[in-house]
Each structure stands twice: as structure tokens, then as C-alpha cells.
Amino acid sequence: MTSAMQVLEQSVVVFSQNYLPLCRVNIKRAIVLLVTNKAEPLDLTAESGWLIHSPSLVLSVPKHIRLKIAAAERMWKVPPVNRREVLRRDHHVCQYCGSNKRLTLDHVIPRSRGGTHTWDNVVIACERCNSRKGDRTPTEAGMQLRKVPKAPAHPAVYFAEQFWSDVQAKLE
Questions:
Q1: What is this structure's pTM?
Q2: Rounded Cα gap, residues 60 and 115, in angstroms
Q3: Distance from first CA to last CA of the chain, Å, rounded?
Q4: Beta-ladder partners of 11
Q5: Tell me, what's the pLDDT at 162?
């Protein structure tokens, strides 16, 4: 049996009108969306949600809800290529050795060789790897990138990818 405090710590997945997973909200926010008729329950799994009791109401809160209202899509721009944003994208880790000490920006194809200051050419590297690579490409320096650099995507895209990969993992 779960306590009231444990239930209030739970979260609910919110889907758009077109059934795209958008985000996770706390159960209090989900209750508001359901009671104000801005969302409806979705039965995606055999797992039931939670029964919430108030003095005048018993509400069944499912694990997934779908918005009934057309949420105006927030504008989201790709952030500028700067140290802070590249650090965020690369999780504050050197993309060559995995260190998190003395981090710098590195141009995969050096600017002196025509490399651009763009999302697909800039990574985080520790000072040691950056000086070891020098004015060469990673291949010439015998170094391997941990992942291919690319521009960050909209947060809802990341959430949807993670949601569906979690669902897939549960099915296997």
C-alpha cells in the first residue's frame, strides 16, 4: 500500500492531441489538467494509475494523459555555438578520453584547415587531448570521438525518443 506522500511524488506522462509524448508532470498538475477538462486519461498499459481521494471527489489518475486543448507550440531555436551550450550538449565530458577536468572547445576539423564554428564541428576536449590532437583531424591524430557532434534538438524530441525507447525496452 502506498502512502499519500508517495503518490504525490509520482509523475504522469503528457501526450499532445496527436498522441506525441511531450513531457512528464507531477501528479498535482495532472489532476488539475483532468479536473479542468484540459486532458483526458489514456490507457496505454495494463498498469492502472492512482485513486486520489478528496472530501468531495474520488479521481482516478492514470499514468498517461492526453491534452484535449491545442497547446500552442512553443518556439524553440537552436542555441548558439558557445562554450556553455557545447558543455551542456557534451555533458561536461571530453569527447576523446572522457575526462571532466580542464575542458576546452575543440574544432574537429581545425579552423586553419577550413573547419567551421558550427554544432557539427565543435566538441568539448580536455587540454591534454586538445594539445595532443593539435592542428590535425582526429583521424590524423589517431584519436576517436566518443560520439558524432550534432546540434541539440527540441527538448520534446529528446523526451519522446527516451519515452519510446523505454517502452520498447519493457516489451523485450
A1: 0.59
A2: 56
A3: 28
A4: 26
A5: 83
